[in-house]
């Protein structure tokens, strides 16, 4: 068997291997390199993907991954991958307990295309704006900042919700501070809020390490994410499941939430121009 493997390896055309490597490492990324990179990564990570997404959710995630790689390269893809791993891990925490209480995500936490789209809509908009150079070089950094901020916001929201449902000792309605059951729309807990803040800091740090944003922009992402999540909790408590707002589903609320976080980060960056770097 080792002889066969060595023979197969010897038969590989070095020129072909080099072409494949050059395609993956192409800078700036192309649609072709983005597509092939995602095919390879999704095949290697299929077991993890199946644990966190439905089949249709995986298809939506593939489109997101391809778009992300095309816009921001491997660093942007790694940011989204980190978001997925941490979000899935938080969703799985004390799943049996959450199911018994009726507050667990459906399908054992395997999210569908609606959740993928709702969680990435603002990031996708920023990616398209970056790809097509809207605003020119002056705005390129802002689209990248908005992209990172949108995923910091959503991860913070997911982690705070899931950890709050698992470990929250006392859950308050954000608009009245009335004690309510875990899983109530617009409810918050100390445990969940702290966990969400830490998750946002972690993802912003990953974005900073990967060169997507700088340190001051990482701080902006964290602040914007917490403001957006507070706003979403208020909207959830005041409007969700109320007459006339049946359209305000969790996926719709997600779009509002991450869009708010992304827009806030961009606006805050414009108000603090000294934090920008060339």
TrEMBL record:
Membrane topology: Multi-pass membrane protein
Keyword set, alphabetical order: Membrane, Transmembrane, Transmembrane helix
InterPro entries: DUF92_TMEM19
Chief localisation class: membrane
Subcellular location: Membrane
Keyword Signal: no
A Pfam family matched in the record: DUF92
Keyword match Membrane: yes
Transmembrane annotation, as ranges: 39-65, 71-93, 114-135
GO CC annotations on file: chloroplast inner membrane
Family stated for the protein in its record: Belongs to the TMEM19 family.
PANTHER family named among the record's database cross-references: TRANSMEMBRANE PROTEIN 19
Protein's name according to its UniProt entry: Protein VTE6, chloroplastic
Lineage: Eukaryota, Viridiplantae, Streptophyta, Embryophyta, Tracheophyta
């Amino acid at each position: 068997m080792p002889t066969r493997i060595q023979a197969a390896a010897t038969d590989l055309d070095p020129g072909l291997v080099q072409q494949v490597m050059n395609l993956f490492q192409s800078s700036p990324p192309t649609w072709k390199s983005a597509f092939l990179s995602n095919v390879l990564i999704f095949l290697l990570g299929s077991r993890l993907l199946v644990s966190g997404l439905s089949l249709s959710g995986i298809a939506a995630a593939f489109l997101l991954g391809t778009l992300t790689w095309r816009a921001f390269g491997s660093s942007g893809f790694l940011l989204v991958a980190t978001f997925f791993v941490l979000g899935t891990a938080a969703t799985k925490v004390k799943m049996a307990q959450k199911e018994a209480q009726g507050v667990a995500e459906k399908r054992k936490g395997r999210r569908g295309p609606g959740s993928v789209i709702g969680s990435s809509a603002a990031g996708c908009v920023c990616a398209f704006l970056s790809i097509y150079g809207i605003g020119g070089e002056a705005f390129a950094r802002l689209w990248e900042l908005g992209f990172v901020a949108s995923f910091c916001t959503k991860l913070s929201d997911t982690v705070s919700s899931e950890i709050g449902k698992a470990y929250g000792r006392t859950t308050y309605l954000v608009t009245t501070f009335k004690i309510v059951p875990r899983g109530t729309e617009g409810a918050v807990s100390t445990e969940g809020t702290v966990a969400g803040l830490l998750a946002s800091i972690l993802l912003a740090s990953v974005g900073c390490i990967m060169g997507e944003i700088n340190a001051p922009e990482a701080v902006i992402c964290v602040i914007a994410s917490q403001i957006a999540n507070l706003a979403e909790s208020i909207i959830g408590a005041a409007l969700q499941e109320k007459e006339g707002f049946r359209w305000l589903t969790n996926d719709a609320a997600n779009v509002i939430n991450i869009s708010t976080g992304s827009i806030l980060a961009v606006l805050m960056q414009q108000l603090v121009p000294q934090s920008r770097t060339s």
